[in-house]
Design brief:
The protein has about 120 residues and is mostly helical. It is about 80% helix and about 0% strand. Helix 1 runs antiparallel to helix 2. The N and C termini lie far apart (about 35 Å). The relative contact order is 0.14.
Length: about 120
């Protein structure tokens, strides 16, 4: 999967989260989750975008670490939201997308680290 597709997917994820949150009533629980979820979803998209402008592999990998944290946090908040609002549609689709994005970025970081360790001369 290329950078352009991931830029699109993370942006769409953030927009879809915002649209779902706009449908929710402002109960105490929903208000807290809405605040946290909008931050993590938009943070994931913004940090992935920033990662594409990285000046080094180390910076890129660090940014992806933040993206992974934000994607996983988004899944957590969506899970709570689903429990509090079981009749709200599309949350399970957003949870699935958060899970998939977390897996994609985690796999990318593992590949980067594996490739870096393979390039390191063996000290034996």
């Amino acid at each position: 999967m290329g950078a352009k597709e991931l830029l699109f997917r993370t942006r769409e994820f953030a927009l879809n989260v915002i649209q779902i949150l706009d449908k929710l009533p402002d109960s105490i629980g929903n208000k807290t989750i809405k605040n946290q979820l909008v931050r993590s979803a938009t943070g994931m998209a913004a940090n992935y975008r920033a990662s594409t402008k990285s000046r080094s592999l180390k910076e890129f990998t660090a940014r992806l670490g933040v993206v992974i944290e934000e994607a996983d946090e988004s899944w957590f908040w969506l899970d709570l939201l689903e429990v509090l609002n079981p009749k709200l549609s599309d949350i399970s689709l957003l949870k699935s997308e958060a899970f998939q994005l977390t897996a994609i970025f985690t796999s990318s970081v593992k590949t980067i680290k594996r490739n870096a360790s393979e390039k390191t001369p063996n000290n034996s």
